[in-house]
Amino acid sequence: MKLMSYLFLVIALIGCKTETKEKIKDSNTDIFGNEIVQSSATNIYMLDTTNNHVDTTLHNHFKKTLFINENEKYSYEIYKEHLNGDSIIDAVITINRLAYAKLKAEESENSIKAEKIGFMGPFNAFFLFDGKSNTLSSPLVVPSSPLLPLKVSFENITSIDFKDILIDFRIRNSSFKEVYFIINKFPKLVFEWTNFDGLGTPNEEAYVFSFKDGRNVVKDIIINEGEIDKLPEKIDLLTYEPIINKQNKKVKTFFFIESEGKYFTSKTP
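Now predict its structure.
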């Protein structure tokens, strides 16, 4: 996987300080060093309010935690789900800053090179909304291509009573999956692997994930080889989302070690 090498390449291309600082993923502070931020909807359950109120609340939070100015154009999505043991609905909120990524590329005078690598950088992020406390977390920035927003899904991994968070993101013609558990009301990265790599090249590879009961309460992650359907003739390899078919060959089994707070795999089959 080439995640870190692509990130270093983009930093070199941009050649100037961006206004967004990278988020340390296992911290419960925002990029200013502050604790988790209280939603402005303190006395109103945000997800039950009008669209205008949600827009205002989120925009104010984005401005404070990601240095977004009033005129910046961006998009966001809200994914509602039960993410802890209480009975109140929670949410994952993603933000995509493609327009800002293109602006920074133009300012760096490397817009052509930046476009070729999908404007890779710190332009996708997500937030946790905790329904019971009615709070929005600080941002978790996921360095990736903003040509596609973060893809959010949920699985019962740590409990049958609530879901855990899966985030898919793109880097050029490759895709990666991250798994987050909520610890102390903040998402903690516990696993990362490739969805597919080298799309449209002779070195193309793909994987399929499943979650099964294992040696402890937290489910194991099973990775099988995948096969990508034949690609259409004219596609944009930076944004095309291929169909991946599961194959019989199992590649790895990962199991969660609570004392370490992340997934590991055995060195032997």
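The chain has one domain: 3-265.
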